[in-house]
Specification:
- By secondary structure, this protein is mostly helical.
- Helices cover 83% and strands 0% of the residues.
- α3 packs antiparallel against α4.
- It has seven helices and no strands.
Length: 151
C-alpha cells in the first residue's frame, strides 16, 4: 500500500520524486573525505567570520550615530544655557537703566563683573603646598584637607 502511495505522489509531483532519488543517493554515498571536510569547515568559519565582522561594523555605525546625536544635544544644551545667561544679564542691564538706577556704562560694568566674579585662579598641587596666601585662599576646602592629610 505504501509504495502505491509513493508512486502516486511522485507521479503527481515530479519534484518530490527528484527529492526522493537524491535522498536515496545520499544514503548510498560514501562519507566525505577528510580534505573535503576540512575545506567545508574552513569555508564555514570564513563565512561566520565575515558575518561577525559585518555585524560589528553595523553595531559600530549605530554606536557612532548615537554618539553624534548625544554630542549634538549636548552642544545644543550648552548653547541654550549660554543664551539664557546672556538674556538674564541683558534683563539686568535693561532693568537698571529703565528704572534710572544706573547709566548704561555702569550697568554694563556691573554685568561684566558679575559675569567674571566666579572665576578663580587654577592652581597646581605644588603651588598650593608652597603656602602662598593668595593661592591658599583660592584653593577649595577639600583640597586643603587633602593636602594636610597627605604626607
Amino acid at each position: 500500500m505504501v509504495p502505491c502511495v509513493i508512486r502516486t505522489i511522485e507521479a503527481t509531483y515530479p519534484s518530490v520524486s527528484a527529492m526522493t532519488e537524491k535522498s536515496q543517493q545520499s544514503a548510498r554515498a560514501s562519507p566525505p573525505s577528510i580534505p573535503a571536510t576540512i575545506r567545508a569547515l574552513i569555508n564555514s568559519a570564513r563565512g561566520w567570520l565575515e558575518n561577525l565582522l559585518h555585524l560589528a561594523a553595523l553595531e559600530g555605525k549605530r554606536a557612532g550615530i548615537g554618539l553624534a546625536v548625544m554630542v549634538g544635544f549636548g552642544v545644543g544644551a550648552f548653547v541654550l544655557l549660554i543664551a539664557g545667561w546672556l538674556a538674564l544679564l541683558a534683563c539686568a542691564v535693561a532693568a537698571l537703566v529703565e528704572n534710572d538706577i544706573l547709566s548704561w556704562a555702569w550697568s554694563l560694568l556691573i554685568v561684566a563683573l558679575l559675569n567674571f566674579a566666579r572665576r578663580r585662579p587654577r592652581i597646581s598641587r605644588n603651588q598650593a603646598q608652597q603656602g602662598s596666601p593668595v593661592l591658599r585662599n583660592a584653593a577649595p576646602a577639600w583640597l586643603e584637607a587633602h593636602l594636610r592629610t597627605e604626607p
